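EI: anyone free to look at a 180-residue chain?
SC: sure, send it
EI:
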Amino acid sequence: MRRGKSIDIDILNSGYRYALSLCTDRQDAEDIVHDAWIRLDKRYGKSPEKSLLYTTIRNLYIDRYRRARKIQFSEFEEQAYVPADPADSRLTPREMNAFLRQLRDVEREALYLSVVEGYTADEIAKMTKVARGTVLSLIHRSKIKLRTWMAGTDLNDVSDGSTDAEKAQVIELVTGSTPK
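SC: here you go
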């Protein structure tokens, strides 16, 4: 950074959390945010707005995903996740990350933008260039999947509405901080 420039730490941290929700690997998230910030600084010469940073992060993530898909080194065997105590409704960060990683990338992204960042379905649709109905569907399905995996129940047994406790748990475990 050149002398005299100010960095908006809140936007940078928010971008990092967003990148982390996409790729779930801290080092990859740091690399993507760094690349996005440098790209935007070169182009605009100032601290970017949040939506522009998110768009750039998302595009860089997609580029990396496509590149990684072209070069596959080996297959790994997935194992089903079995919670230690199904009666315990409180999950550890490790357990919640295991559940979140089972979601498709687009589901995880929509859930993060909705629950953690507080964007509306219309705003998410504009940011991701996806139809509003698709965004609502992605959020709804990802919540159902998470509730199903957390409860260890059948999909037919899951109710529609999400509780504040579930939102708080997702926020806490995705971002690593307790919601206020």
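EI: Residues 50-70 form the longest helix (21 residues).
SC: 👍
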